[in-house]
Specification:
This protein has 332 residues and is an alpha/beta fold. It has eleven helices and twelve strands. Strand 2 and strand 3 form a beta hairpin. Helix 3 packs parallel to helix 4 and helix 4 packs across helix 5. The structure holds ligand PBG. Ligand PBG binds next to helix 6.
């Protein structure tokens, strides 16, 4: 054939392919989510093979392992004892709660590691919602934001580097920024869950923390989070959220879930110069794990290809439960 263009010329050898490669993933792109609990034993999470609820001591070992693999940021999620859960989730701003204690311990043992936290009430809420639920069953915005600000301050006092509001209340980024600044934490950053969708992909995570919405008494509890998390049908609205978070002082914008929302990452990349993070959420992790355990897909190849897709879509950072495995595979 008389062809002018033969794209295969640049695919001929590994050397040529590496020269024209547009995107790569490296361990410092990853943020590694970790679950902790008060127990004395490491507890495997049923729906997330390979992920555990760590104890305080095993958490330190796991974070050191992550560091040695090149991972530079972790995010912590607490499984809170039932007896500490309340309607207002006040345990979230207990200075001696699980999260502040874990942060202090990690900062003692490995001060270089960047620590991100999650700001929302759901692990602490008896109703399993990210905000305070009124007697009428409405998730209250402004009252919730007051609690979130207190939570963020307690996390910053313990040594957190990046505060991650995941609650989707209106105005919380600006309120948290102001609260942090007022307390002298102007160098603590905010990585906001900017476009967080009301998604079924969070199922395994809610099992890990036992944090799903539930009605324990006669109070009407919304059974999902669709009055605050975004409607999966919407894309333009994500740009509005990104614009607001940027105006309110977010340092990094996050899209969540990741895989079914690559178009949202791409759109926000066109609109903002801020770094973008993608959250490769629990359900995405569990689907690959399940298929790999059955021998239906090759785990390493599928994980690395998936992580690369977030970079290609425009993300700079990836929150992923595959972080340590992927970091190891990248060294091979
Ligand atoms: C809490 C929170 C959730 C996740 C991160 N922070 C659950 C939710 O919003 O219901 C989900 C993470 C995952 O599924 O991996 N607000």
């Amino acid at each position: 054939m008389d062809l002018t263009y033969r794209p295969r010329r640049l695919r001929k050898t590994p050397a040529l392919r590496s020269m024209v490669r547009e995107n790569i993933i490296t361990p410092s792109d990853f943020i590694y989510p970790l679950f902790i609990h008060e127990g004395e034993e490491v507890e495997p999470i049923g729906a997330m093979p390979g992920a555990n609820r760590w104890t305080m001591n095993s958490l330190v070992d796991e974070v050191k392992r992550a560091w040695s693999l090149g991972i530079r940021c972790i995010v912590l999620f607490p499984k809170v004892a039932e007896s500490l859960k309340t309607e207002g989730g006040e345990e979230c701003f207990n200075k001696n709660g699980l999260i502040p204690r874990a942060i202090r311990k990690l900062k003692e043992e490995l001060p270089e590691m960047t620590i991100m936290t999650d700001v929302a009430l759901d692990p602490y809420s008896i109703d399993g919602h990210d905000g305070i639920v009124s007697q009428e069953g409405v998730v209250l915005n402004d009252e919730t934001v007051e609690h979130l600000c207190k939570q963020a301050i307690v996390q910053a006092q313990a040594g957190a580097d990046l505060i991650g509001p995941s609650d989707m209340m209106d105005g919380r980024v600006g309120a948290i920024r102001e609260a942090l600044d007022d307390e002298g934490f102007e160098s603590v950053g905010i990585i906001s869950y900017t476009a967080k969708y009301s998604s079924a992909y969070y199922g395994p995570f809610r099992e890990a923390l036992d944090s799903a919405p539930r009605a324990l008494n006669s109070k009407p509890i919304p059974k999902d989070k669709s009055t605050y998390q975004m409607d999966p049908s919407n894309a333009r609205e994500a740009i509005t959220e990104a614009y607001l978070d940027e105006q309110e002082g977010s340092d990094i914008l996050m899209v969540k879930p990741g895989l079914a929302y690559l178009d949202i990452i791409y759109r926000i990349r066109q609109e903002s110069e801020l770094p973008i993070a993608a959250y490769n959420v629990s359900g995405e992790y569990s689907m690959i794990k399940a298929a790999a355990l059955k021998g239906w897909v090759d785990e390493k190849s599928v994980v690395l290809e998936t992580l690369l897709s977030f970079k290609r879509a425009g993300a700079d950072l990836i929150l992923t439960y595959h972080a340590c495995d992927a970091a190891k595979w990248l060294q091979d």
